[in-house]
Amino acid sequence: MTIVERGRQLVGREDPDVAEAILQLFHDDGIEVLLNTELLEVEGLSGQAIRIRLRNSQGEHTLDGSDILVGTGRVPNTQGLGLEKTGVEVDNAGYIRVNERLQTSAAGDLGGGRVRRQPQIHACRN
């Protein structure tokens, strides 16, 4: 497995020491991580055969594989829930505002999951 990251570290919103620890875990599991790498082209069909052309400080190269998973970011799915009627505040992007104890602005409500602006790291293992 290879992870291609265009930034200089994994999980770019995290502190560098956290990103480094995650990078080390990936390396320990045999996962190759390419940082500061630009995706130039993808050919093929995921689930069959794919070829990815990349560029980084070592130049251009290709990766061949059977599958591709693209992570492009995420947005909260809070629009239209009627949160304004409950007293739950959201920020300009639609994320539920929570404090350090994950409490929302509505008494007794907790905010969690993909609707709050907090680190969202998901791990998958074969």
Written description of the protein model:
The chain is elongated. The chain has 2 domains: 2-65, FAD/NAD(P)-binding domain; 74-117, no CATH class. It is built from 2 helices and 5 strands. The chain is of the alpha+beta class and 126 residues long. The termini are close together. A hairpin with a 2-residue loop joins β4 (49-56) and β5 (59-65).
Give a brief outline of the structure.
The chain has two domains: 2-65, FAD/NAD(P)-binding domain, CATH 3.50.50; 74-117, no CATH class. 13% of the residues lie in helices and 23% in strands. The chain has helices at 16-28, 83-86; strands at 2-4, 32-34, 38-45, 49-56, 59-65.
Brief descriptors of the model:
126 residues; alpha+beta; FAD/NAD(P)-binding domain; 2 domains; three-stranded antiparallel beta sheet; two-stranded parallel ribbon; 2 helices; 5 strands; 13% helix; elongated; disordered C terminus
Which class of secondary structure composition applies to the elements? alpha+beta
SS elements, strand count: 5
The fraction of residues in strands falls at 15-25%
Oligomer: single chain
The Cα radius of gyration reads 19 Å
Q: Could you say how many structural domains there are in total?
A: 2
SS element count, helices: 2
- Overall spatial form: elongated
How do the SSEs run, as a string of H and E? EHEEEEH
What kind of sheet is the major sheet? Answer: 3 strands, antiparallel
